[in-house]
Amino acid sequence: MTDTSSHALRYSTIDGEHRHELEIKRSRFIAVLCRAETEEEARALVADLRREFHDARHHCSAFVLGPDRMIQRSSDDGEPSGTAGVPMLEALLKGAAVDGVPDLSDTAAVVVRYFGGILLGAGGLVRAYSEAISTALATARLVRRQRLRLLRVDTPHAAAGRLENDLRAAGIAVLGSDYGPSAASLRVAVEDDQASRSAFAERLASLTGGGPAAVDLGTAWVDLH
Questions:
Q1: Whole-prediction pTM value?
Q2: Which of 45, 49, 159, 216 has a CA between 20 and 30 Å from the CA of residue 190?
């Protein structure tokens, strides 16, 4: 996923799908968290769970999308207004990231409720739906995403192996190499900020004796496991 309009350099998201169930006053709350990068993917999760739990009374949902978390949606799905979807969304937005910073995104959440016969009241519903998401997040596996600048370094065949080793030794990610008829090309990735790009340019110039500058290939979002 490439996003040149985003101001974010990194964020966290759910690694795959995660489920967690609570029982509150005989009602079952089945929270499902899933990675989603588009509204279509988020709504598909809701549709899939409606089919899987077709006999449940409610399938409330919330999702937050994009590196800057610009897209935020929620649905009470028949619960009293404001008692399900909004608390779920707020729990997602407060969800701790890998390093403790609340920057969770590209995540869809659905809470399937089987009514147990005891009314919870508006306050009870807010607490239940919020708790369903927060406890699910506490046990879910998260993954860090980072926006990296992709670059191509062209070098003579005879120098490619040594240059690749030198770059790796300097802590620079070398994604691969391609060998053409007249030269080799190394594909590298650096953090997408001015300081990192400048430091790489200086290191490359030092290693190649002032050889050709790297070619900018744009940015890409990469999962850091």
A1: 0.81
A2: 159
Hey, what are 43's tokens? Answer: 């709504």
CB 185 within 8 A of CB 177: yes
- Alpha-carbon distance of 108 to 103, in angstroms, equals 14
Average per-residue pLDDT in the chain? 92
* pLDDT tens-digit series, residues 30-71: 999 999 999 999 999 999 999 999 999 999 999 999 999 999
φ and ψ at 176, to 5 degrees? 165, 175
The Cα-based distances of 207 to 167, 175, 204, 219 in angstroms read: 8, 18, 5, 24
The residue with tokens 């997040």 is 137
Q: Confirm if 79 and 123 have CB atoms less than 8 A apart.
A: no
- Does residue 1 register a pLDDT over 50? no
Q: CA 219, CA 176: separation in Å to the nearest integer? A: 16
User: What are the beta bridge partners of residue 186?
Assistant: 153, 177
Three-state SS string over 29-51 comes to EEEEEEECCCHHHHHHHHHHHHH
Q: Is 66 left (phi over 0), alpha (psi -120 to 50) or beta?
A: left
Beta strands in 15-162 (DSSP E): 17-24, 27-35, 58-65, 71-75, 107-114, 142-155
Q: How many helices (H) and strands (E) does the chain have?
A: 5, 10
